Amino acid sequence: MERISNLILIDGDTRRRAAISHALATNQIHVEPFENISELGAAWPSSGVVLLHEQAGAISSLIEQMARHGEWFPIIAFSEYPSPPRIVQAVLDGAIDYVGWPITAEELNASLQRAIRRTDAFGHAKLREVMARARIDRLSRREREVLGGVASGLSNRLIGERLSISPRTVEIHRANMLTKLGASHTSDAIRIAIEAALIK
Length: 200
Prior knowledge:
Elements: E1 6-10, H1 14-25, E2 30-34, H2 37-42, E3 49-53, H3 58-69, E4 75-80, H4 84-93, E5 97-101, H5 105-136, H6 141-151, H7 156-163, H8 167-181, H9 186-195
Parallel strand pairs: 1-2, 1-3, 3-4, 4-5
């Protein structure tokens, strides 16, 4: 079984942070405690699994921080007696696992091992998606529409007809879209759109 040496704990509750750190000390897991995501951003770790006390928007904020740093850490979310819909939403947002608090050290360690096993396949794909979405967010509405047309294989003329603009205007939007995406070619732009789940 693969050992985890570093746990990045993000939790605003001082007593709970201390309790988790103490519980895991016996398993020879080093816990790096942070009060919030901003504090983590200021002292970015080199590796580890994140144990995040889950609140509204916390997972999305953490993933955005990861995208900015270009590194992915698997996220295990936790909260007190979470409901099934809350767990499902957290996983959809990007958590690799969810545990209820209180939890025993043995249960938490098992969750950490599952997270490490699933990280390679899930984590890098999720990071690519988040980074691609961040690029897509830079586009204007019209540039997104042009990207959609390009991804559908339409010519500038056909995109123009669909959007009721001239082919020359499409060309201008297309050039701006490539620049904002940091794409050298149309194929790069399409790949970014696919990674952002903009197109299937």
